[in-house]
Amino acid sequence: MQITGKTVLITGGTDGIGRELALQLQAAGADVVITGRDAARLTRARGEGMTAIAADLTGPDGIEAVLRGLAGRSVDVLINNAGMGTEHDFRIALPDQNGDEQSLWLNLHAPIRLIVALMSTLKTRPEAMIVNVTSGLAIAPSAGAPVYCATKAALRSYTQSLRAQLAGTQIHVLEALPPVVDTAMTRTRGGRKLSPQECARQIIAAMRANADEANVGMVRILKAVHQVAPWLARRIMIGF
Predict the structure, then answer these.
(1) Which of 15, 117, 163, 222 is the most interior residue, by most CB within 10 Å?
(2) pLDDT at position 190
(3) What is the average per-residue pLDDT within 51-73?
């Protein structure tokens, strides 16, 4: 895909991977529109020349807020990046059902609803793309984050079906699978983390190449292990 001149909508574009995608795509000549919930970060993005839409995508009202913010504006690229985890570990405590519902909405329902809402305009563009950001945990889950893993695995499945439906059209479907990235969501985690800058760089390289998947960082190794021995990939990741 040619990035220059494209209008790109990025959900969760005020922080972490989403902000780095926004900055790097803007530097490459894209017209960037982001969504987010933090007023100060939205103001910062506007000061940087981006269109910033206040929208809480943990519920259905957020979808309407995005569409109102676009005000009929044509979008060439939709990047469903916004995501969250939730505590859901019976070994520690009873799960927070409200948190689970928010995760289900943000990680799964919102991407699907935005794709449906924007499909008609994407079909009018000479070159368009849908980028769904899932996770290496969509390949093999972790015991400590079952709801997060389930939503990312579901979005991965949806993405693969959507790609088959849109084969032969001008809309390309890319799945981005990051590893553990150094963001606010992983702040309390130890171990090796990929920088959001490098994660965004690899996703954008996959966009330029019209790849089907961006297996980012260590996910390339996980994907290779899973292709040869799925049981081993599951065993490795279940305790992650």
Answers:
(1) 222
(2) 66
(3) 96
Active site residues: 148
Closest of 36, 35, 8, 40 to residue 24, by C-alpha: 8
Q: What is the pLDDT of residue 213?
A: 98
Q: Give the mean pLDDT of 39-68.
A: 97
* Contacting residues for 72 by C-beta, under 8 A, at least 6 apart: none
The CATH T-level fold of domain 7-238 is Rossmann fold (3.40.50)
Pairing of strands 213-215, 128-133: unpaired
> Which strands make up the sheet holding 31-36, listed edge to edge?
51-54, 31-36, 7-10, 77-80, 128-133, 171-177, 213-215
Q: Domain boundaries in the chain?
A: 7-238
Runs of H (alpha helix) within the chain:
16-27, 39-47, 60-70, 97-104, 110-124, 146-165, 196-208, 219-228, 230-238
pTM: 0.95
